[in-house]
Amino acid sequence: EGPAEEGLAEALEIEPSPSETGERSAAWDLRRKQRLRVDVISAEGLRDADWVPGGGVSDPYCVVRHRKGSETKDSFQTHVIQDSLNPVWNHFGYVPDFSPDRDTLEFWIYDKDFGKEHDLLGFAIVPGMKIPHEGLDCSLELVDSGVHQASLKIKITFEDDGQQEVDALIAIALDTWQLAGLTAESLPSTPPPRRPPSTDLCGTHSLDLMKSSLASRHPVTVNSIDKLDRFVAAPSAQRLLFWQAMLSLAILYDAFMIPFTLAFEVAMDTQLLAINMLVAAFWTCDFVVTMFSAYQSYGATEMRFRFIVARYMKSWMLPDIGLIFLDWFFILSWLSDGSSVHGGASVFRTSKLARALRAIRLLRLAKVASLSKLLDQFTHSKASVMIVDMTKSSVVLLVCTHLVVCTWFALGNPENEWSVTWVAQANLLGMGVWAQYATSIHWAVTQYTPASMEVTPTNLNERGFAVAADLLGLIGFSTFISSITTMMTQ
């Protein structure tokens, strides 16, 4: 038996139940007629099961299982927390038909992995006999966690069997009442037709009492901001998914063009200007779309406009405003530079400040993480997971290679005709942009493989960067090959 089975056997050694000892109490009988509400709050001190360099840390989630004798079934599962060893879920669920004298609760924490079996980060057992009639609120030490003092914070309470259905009915009634109120506000203020007297006084009086009771407990206030909630798109809405796909293309365009125009002598012609204006308009529209895009919060979908805007203000709103300003600043700078078509190259390479400002726009690459999480939600089969992971790994490798190519050429591009650089030695100054890019990417690829070429560093800066590129290529390419091999074997 492994350590997990031994810990499970040890945890299941509980005291005799009241049915065996004959000792029964009123509180115990009451508990048998109720069900459990289980709150999985947080965990602390989990081990890092992701050993791949640069791959982050564990992505934990918790599965709550209900053991009835020899039968075990999953009751519910929390959402996945990305890259955290101290996750906070604040997730709850219900466990029906729970017998405290015979049943057991199990909490299993896993690390979500793509392309292979999920890693166990630890588990905890709570026998029903150990749950007091007033409930349980404590931290459990995890068994088979692989680290010391890993714990799980939970809360268990007994609830009436019909409470969840009552809460659901009240929520439906409130939603219907709010919708009716909004509809009434939009209709013209004409008096309704007089209703003939009815003899069903009891039913009318009961309905009025129900409305007044709900209104006293849940007052409905609708302002102009809350009316914007109807325009919020759910995460699974087709128009939002299409927009996310366009967002991925815009990020890839920026990831290619910004380093490319910073390193090479690129002339801003009419076609390139039109594309840049289209991309800038897209990012401007994305600023508005983001405020009407729902998000997941602790397993629930947040569809309220004011909360979405508040979250956006705390994260990407100010950076997005600055980046949009830079987009239009460079476009207007080119338009004001003159009527010459090829004079726009000065916009890209006039000064170090202009280069630094354009490089700041690469901050949008950080949005790839949120797009990756969204894509993971729609991949369920092993084949689709493998294809998505291979695609993401390939894109990351290509983007890193492109950055190395542009940096290598920027280091070798001579500031004057007397400078000794690899570009001057290779006689690339008189060639076109694409010939220079092809030579640079040929050199970058040779850093990942044992191949060689005639281009070599000629000064200290180039040699230092070449050493760094060799180390990056060794680590990155070997990690890429090993991950692909692992996914294929799975």
UniProtKB/TrEMBL annotation:
CDD domains: C2. It comes from Zooxanthella nutricula. Residues 1-26 are annotated as: Disordered. Gene3D superfamilies: 1.10.287.70, C2 domain. The chain crosses the membrane at residues 240-260, 272-295, 316-335, 394-411, 423-445, 465-484. SUPFAM superfamilies: C2 domain (Calcium/lipid-binding domain, CaLB), Voltage-gated potassium channels. Residues 1-16 have a biased composition (Low complexity). This is C2 domain-containing protein. Coiled coil: none annotated. Residues 14-142 form the C2 domain. Keywords: Membrane, Transmembrane, Transmembrane helix.
